[in-house]
Amino acid sequence: MTYLAIDFGGGSGRVVAGTITTEGGKKQLTMQLVHRFQNRQVRLGEHVYWDFPALFEDMKTGLRKAAQLGLKVSGIAVDTWGVDFGLIDRNGDLIGNPVCYRDARTQGMADEFFADTDRTAHYSVNGTQVMEINTLFQLLSLKKANSPQLQIADKLLFTPDLFSYFLTGEANTEYTIASTSEMLNATTRDWDWELIDRLQLPRHLFCPIVMPGTVRGKLRKDIAEETGLGEVDVIAVGSHDTASAVAAVPAKDDESPVAFISSGTWSLLGVELDKPILTEEARRAEFTNEGGIGGKITFLQNITGLWFLQRLMAEWKEEGDEQQYDTLLAAAAEAKIKTVIPVDAKEFQNPKSMQAAIRDYCAEHALEVPQSKGATTRVVLQSLAAKYAEATAHLNAMLPTPIQKLHIIGGGSQNKLLNRLTEEALGVPVEAGPVEATAIGNILCQALAKGEVKSVAEMRKIEI
């Protein structure tokens, strides 16, 4: 059986095919890239949007290419970033392009919400790290603006649910993506209906929750014919990309808990647990309880990650001085600067110039200002490593025993300098890879739904 993982990231999307074979009693996953395409944020008027129709068309192109390759597709599954959503009206139509989480509409909404909400009590139910990008605050911003979209909406669908809806016609919400919203009860793993009612949000917006490893529905007839794939199951996986990536961590059976950093635009640092941690200590340390595959909780902290380097590289390219990662990281390795900046400070959230923001911060706080691109990169990477060490110290204080090993997965695991700095900062061994963790986890969770794989533990033993 061949499975198609449709993996949307903040800058690009891709369709990846995966097939599990068995040889000599061992299972092996073989993958091939079928299609890659651009994703971009589009500023239109006062807001920043995702171009959903274009992304949907790019996805269908990938499905057509899979059919043209002669692949016998048994399942399709979508994973994306968290928190963002689209609204559907009573006719089943999309009400406008989904707004990007980096839009300014949520500024100040968290403070307004907690003006009459007890933070400790709220966390004891939701267990979510408070970030103004969260779905809760996006919805509150719509209410405050008296948005006509919210008034006519029939259903709210998170980004991967939205893609799956237009593939199948079935409206449901996958558990791991719902857990990014700050509107889910972390213990019952259902909607926090008390919160929803208190905010006077209509219950009908919130769709039934389905768990990873279940079938969402069948490919719509028109899309089945258009793509040439025929009738194929569309499967719920860890549709929050972090959940799929964590399920692909190549942890050994004796690693408990499994510790990871999913490294990309964001760095998601945490451990895999059986139950949420909803204590005041966890809230103050800014950890979140997100859904995982196989009934697990991914207890983690969201940390700004390689967003810094992505912005710097784009900025230097626009200035006509495009950099290559290999040479830039080599220069960073040689830089002697010791400056460390707080990577999650508001100054770095979405500045007009990341380079200027770093230099200005250093100057204002009596820190050595980086004077070269290599030094700037070194400051970013050692600041990330310092943040990882700080987060791990908080994490260890909440666990029965400190973590003994850290897995760095995702695209950022290729950054050998960051891996080395992280190992030095944490004082534990760091194991890098797989790079394609999200696609691997997506595909193997589809295999779990189809019975080709029996458990997450078996998934982690499959050779890549």
UniProtKB/TrEMBL annotation:
CDD domains: ASKHA_NBD_FGGY_RhaB-like (cd07771). The keyword Transferase applies. GO terms for molecular function: ATP binding; glycerol kinase activity; rhamnulokinase activity. Pfam families: FGGY_C, FGGY_N. GO terms for biological process: glycerol metabolic process; rhamnose catabolic process. Residues 3-246 form the Carbohydrate kinase FGGY N-terminal domain. Residues 260-449 form the Carbohydrate kinase FGGY C-terminal domain. Coiled coil: none annotated. Keywords: ATP-binding, Disulfide bond, Kinase, Nucleotide-binding, Rhamnose metabolism, Transferase. The keyword Transmembrane helix does not apply. Belongs to the FGGY kinase family. This is Rhamnulokinase. It comes from Leyella stercorea. The lineage of its organism: Bacteria, Pseudomonadati, Bacteroidota, Bacteroidia, Bacteroidales.
